[in-house]
Amino acid sequence: MQLPFLILTLEKDSEMFADFFFPDRCVNCNLIIAAKTYVCELCKNQISFCNLEFEAENMLKEHCKTLFPVESAFSLMEFQKEGFSRELMHQLKYKNRPNIGEIFADWTIERLHFKQKPDLITSIPLHPKKMKERGYNQLHIYTEKIANSYKIPFDNELIKRNYYTKAQALKNKKGREKQEQLFSINKEIVGKHVLIIDDVFTTGNTMSMMAWEILKNKHNKVSILVMAHDY
Ligand SMILES: [Zn+2]
């Protein structure tokens, strides 16, 4: 094969070329897998997906109801402390792998069906200092993909975070006053059903503070969508 032809072929198939030399590997077991799937089938089978019906009653919704009025609640998977879902979440949040949000979104889209779509999607914001440290908000790729797939408008700037401290820490140390001001709304919305997205639902404290900020206007409603729950 003549050299110019070889170069031409390589350029044309540059993606295949890249795949050959830098193949995608399963984030858990390192097996070579198809591009942008992130996880091999074997590892995917280890995940406990919840398969909830969005509008139906479920444990997550029951839990939320003790904290704030909620329309619907959906969780993609159970958070496994020793398991693979924890590892994926860890990579998404702390190992500079924001694209893992994409695979979580794909898995969600396979399972989440709305009878009635929310009007607006937003996600839990990071404090600007945290955003700078991490370099990205781990929820944004996920949120955008979900919003685009269901054709629901999204606004990741609807709410801003006023304190760097975690909700739980504020609850323990600084008293209720600061806790109540953890978030503030950037623009007034009225009569909207807002779907709030977060990664892991544990105590529900953060979600609750966010929800109440939206529910300050009594004509709004909230539902929640989380990647995993752990309670
Ligand atoms: Zn694997």
Which shape, going by the Cα principal axes? globular
Described by strand count, sense and barrel closure, the largest sheet is:
4 strands, parallel
The helix-strand sequence is HHHHEHHEHHEHHEEHE
Unreliable segments of 5+ consecutive residues? none
Across the major sheet, the strand order is 1-6-5-2
Strand-residue fraction? 5-15%
The helical percent reads 40-55%
CATH topology of the largest domain: Rossmann fold
Chemical compounds bound to the protein:
zinc ion
* Separation, N- and C-terminal Cα atoms: 62 Å
Q: How many helices in DSSP terms?
A: 11
Supply the CATH architecture of the largest domain.
3-Layer(aba) Sandwich
Describe this structure as you would to a colleague:
- The chain has helices at 3-12, 14-21, 41-44, 59-65, 84-94, 100-111, 128-134, 140-150, 167-174, 176-180, 205-214, and strands spanning 73-78, 120-123, 159-161, 183-185, 193-201, 221-229.
- It is an alpha/beta fold and 231 residues long.
- The chain has two domains: 1-45, no CATH class; 48-229, Rossmann fold.
- The strands form two sheets. It has a four-stranded parallel β-sheet with strand order 1-6-5-2, with helices on both faces.
- β5, α11 (205-214) and β6 (221-229) form a beta-alpha-beta unit.
- α6 runs parallel beside α8 (140-150).
- The longest helix has 12 residues, at 100-111.
- The protein is globular.
- The model has no long low-confidence stretch (mean pLDDT 87).
- The structure holds zinc ion.
- Zinc ion binds next to α3.
- Residues 26, 28-29, 31, 39-40, 42-43 line the site of zinc ion.
